[in-house]
Every structure is written in structure tokens, then in C-alpha cells.
């Protein structure tokens, strides 16, 4: 192996790949916020006793979980403009990732809320708390502690899912790598470097997950 040539290849590709990594982190964080903003109300709608409230949430979750994220990206970026709804590439990418993540996060939250015993609800009602007060002060703190691992897995997967937004011409890490590969006769080191960067980002978010779990468990005790 020609180590000098490899070092030169990585050095030439580094600026664009680092820039792409920055975009990847920004997309992942924006999509995490968007996914949580969508997932929480969707979970509450799914828990409603009224079918008129549940039905739209069930349809949304089923559609997002039952279709590939790549297809969702194509629909938002390429098909919606044909009916007059046009998004810039960045908005389309974040919107698709947020919608997809929100569906999975809502199911994690819904399952965690259902996992809190009915005795907690009855005890709160007997103390004079209403539904929303019980949900906010009693149920959600317990549910979040249970939901953190599965929610974190969904959010960590966003790091890898951002690679798909390259199909809408967003220069995140994967597209930056492809552009660097196009001018190289030795693509494997560049793809391996990109994989290593994705892995490091995932490890960073896993560390954040463990920190949150410790904080929530300590608060619960």
C-alpha cells in the first residue's frame, strides 16, 4: 500500500468531507428536534379515546413506518412541486427526516405511557389532579425514563439516515464522499473514512443517551 498516496488522497478530500460532516450533524439535530415536536403530540393523539382524533395519527404513523425513507424524500422533493408545493432541498430533507423520525418516536412514547400502571392514574385522580396534570406531573416523568433507550435508538439512526438526503442534492457527508470518490482511482479509503465518521457520531450520541439515562434514573430514585 502506498501510504504517501493514501495520505495525500485523504488530505485532499478532508475539507469537503469535514464540511459534509458539519451538514450531517446539523441535519441530524434539526431532524431530532422536528421528530420530537411531531412525535409527542402524535403519541397523545394515539392515546385519545376519540377515534376522530386517533385516526389521523394512526394513518400518519402507518404511512411513515410502512414506506421507505428514500421514497418519502422523493415524494416531498420531486412530487409535491408538481402540485404546487415546492421546498428547497434543505427544507425537504429535514422535513422528510423529521416526519419519519416523528412516527417512530411517537410509538416509543405511546408504549412508555401505556407502560405506566393504571394505579398511578387512579391515585392522581383521587388527589384531585385532572388528566393533563396527571399526564404532565406523574405519568410523563416515568414514561420518559422508560422511553429514552428506544427513542435514542431512533435518534441515533438519524445520523445514518442523513446519508439519504444526498438524493436531493444536499452536500452532506455521503454526497461529499461521492464527489471526492469521483476524482479518485481508489474509492475504498474514502468510503471507509466516511463510515468511521458516521460511527464516531453514533458513539457520541450513544454517550449522550447513557448520560440521559443516568440522570433520569437518579432523579427517579
What's the SSE blueprint?
Layout: H1 3-46, H2 51-66, H3 69-79, H4 89-115, H5 118-126, H6 131-161, H7 173-182, H8 188-220
Describe the structure.
With 221 residues, the chain is mainly α. It is built from 8 helices and no strands. Helix 5 packs antiparallel against helix 6. The chain is elongated and about 75 Å long.
Mean pLDDT reading: 83
Query: Which structural class do the helices and strands define?
Result: mainly alpha
The coarse overall form would be elongated
SSE pattern, N- to C-terminal: HHHHHHHH
Radius of gyration: 21 Å
Count of alpha/pi helices: 8
Q: What is the helical fraction, as a range of percent?
A: over 70%
Distance between the termini: 55 Å
As a percent range, the share of strand residues is under 5%
Secondary structure: number of strands: 0
| Largest sheet data | none
Give unreliable regions as ranges: none
Question: What are the key terms here?
Answer:
221 residues, 8 helices, 82% helix, elongated
Quick recap of the structure?
The chain is mainly α.
